[in-house]
Amino acid sequence: MIDLKFLRENPEKVQKAARDKGVDVDTAHILEIDTKYRELSQSVQKLREERNKLAKEKNIEEGRRVKDQSEKEEHALKAVEEELKEWLYKIPNLAKSDVKAGKDESENEVIKKYKEPTKFDFIPKDHLELGEALDIIDVKRAPKVSGARFAYLKNEAVLLEFALVQLALEILIKEGFIPVVPPVLIKTEIMKGLGYMEHGAEEDVFKIEKDDFVLAGTAEHAIVPMHKDEIFNKKDLPKRYVGFSSAFRREAGSYGKDTRGILRVHQFDKVEMVSFVSQEDDDKEHEYLLSLEEKLFQMLEIPYRIVKMCTGDLGFPAARKYDIETWMSGQNKYREVTSVSTVTDFQSRRLNIKYQDPANAGDKKYSFILNGTAFAIGRTIIAILENYQQKDGSVKIPHVLQKYIGKSIIKSSKTQNYAL
């Protein structure tokens, strides 16, 4: 939710910023509701003062009349307040001034590259062909149990998953991040507060209607609202968490695309970073989280590039976002594996998360919040398989992961054949 005072003073700017994100908002109508809300607030306050005065004067008859009028206006005020909140929730977060205006992903900017794409003296295979031959990925049996776009990870793929988790935790805990395993069932109202249920986005979450829950799409969804209705002491910021959880997404609108293998599935695991910072530290923290994502992929020695999102590809809550795309040799292209975003004070206003500065007369401000993926496990495994594959179909394990797995190479170990 954006600052209402800012909206009052800059309605045209807010409307254009929303349009740059592909969202149409009627700021004039919202300000009309705001005016009505303020007028009613003033009227209700005056009636309350009048009731108190009449009570002291023991004017029972006039007090009863004012009470009836006050209750009617308080009821009207509550209704207008809810209407105003509903309309304010439709406004996306404004992009930062350094973000390029653009219509979609085709206008994103590549701002950095690390290493050249991996070259082979043979035709490289994709991750599914490698994974099935090595008996570490099974996408044929999962549909019997869960339907399309689910998979089993097996054998060394499981070891790779927990090696990646251990590597991320090892690096990030040393950096002062607090490790968390959060719940994956989230109240619908909380997900709305995060800004992930607007403008069709609710179609991408799995809902449990009976209990009014949604399944988390990333650990961030449960970590950010941990501090709902809380106030940090500024000296305790930045507050940083690293969370591990399964994630669930419908992938609405993506049917027919990327259906092969485990690139775009309904359930996957992630290691996610979340930071709560003071407003002046937002940009610095964004670059810091991006540097940690780079560090992890440089440790894996996998080629990647950094892409800065334009406004049309930012997403509803984000004010600035970077993606890391690793080279996928079997697909002969770069594919997104992580992202890191600042949502500024957009979510903290909705969830009432503030910080207090005792050195500045106890001044309270909304915290700025950032999130970034350390490892999206499935996509990182794809990058490892496709970049470390060997001519004989085996796959070398990145050196930094070998200590967790206890071996340096994955070879086929099939001992049984099944008729599927």
Look at the structure and give the mean pLDDT: 92
Question: What would CATH call the class of the largest domain?
Answer: Alpha Beta
Q: Give me the count of strands.
A: 18
Class of secondary structure makeup: alpha+beta
Low-confidence stretches: none
Strand order of the largest sheet: 1-11-12-13-16-10-9-4
Number of spatially distinct domains: 2
Assign the CATH superfamily of the largest domain. Bira Bifunctional Protein, Domain 2
Shape: elongated
Estimate what percentage of residues fall within beta strands: 15-25%
Task: Return the CATH topology of the largest domain.
Answer: BirA Bifunctional Protein, domain 2
| Radius of gyration (Å) | 26 Å
Relative helix content: 25-40%
Measured between the Cα atoms of the first and last residue, the distance is 51 Å
What's the number of helices? 13
- Assign the CATH architecture of the largest domain: 2-Layer Sandwich
What characterizes the major β-sheet? 8 strands, mixed
Question: Brief overview, please?
Answer:
This protein is an alpha+beta fold. Helix content is 38%, strand content 21%. The longest helix has 31 residues.
Describe the structure.
- The protein is α+β, with helices and mostly antiparallel strands.
- It contains 13 helices and 18 strands.
- Helix 3 runs antiparallel to helix 4.
- The longest helix has 31 residues.
- The model has no long low-confidence stretch (mean pLDDT 92).
